[in-house]
Amino acid sequence: MPRRGQRKGVSYQIGEDIETPNRFTIVERWASLEAQYNHFRTPEFGKMMGALGNILAGPPEVSIHDVASTMTLEEALAAAGVGG
Asked: Mind listing the domains of the chain with CATH numbers?
């Protein structure tokens, strides 16, 4: 879903691990890595991280992926030489 009030935030999704209750994964998509960095610099991000520290069992585990390209399944199958 689009993020309200966030510039260049493309989407935000959350899901709970089916094997580990109360373990959640949050996926954010940004228009660019620089947009993500700009988000880190906002007062709202600092407030959010402070609030999370009060409710999480431990520090959040964060991985940032800078994706060079994206393709559809059909494009990937064609690139792999798999007929369809």
From this structure: 9-80 (3.30.70.100)
Q: For the whole model, what pTM was predicted?
A: 0.68
pLDDT digits (tens, 9 = 90+) for 40-62: 999 999 999 999 888 998 888 99
In terms of DSSP bridges, do strands 9-16 and 24-30 run parallel, antiparallel, or are they unpaired?
antiparallel
Structure tokens at 54: 């009060």
Report the alpha-carbon angle 18-60-19, nearest 5.
10
* SS3 assignment for the chain: CCCCCCCCEEEEEEEECCCCCCCEEEEEEECCHHHHHHHHCCHHHHHHHHHHHHHCCCCCCCCCCCCCCCCCHHHHHHHHCCCC
Q: What is the identity of the amino acid at 62?
A: V
Residues 17, 51: Cα–Cα separation, whole Å: 22
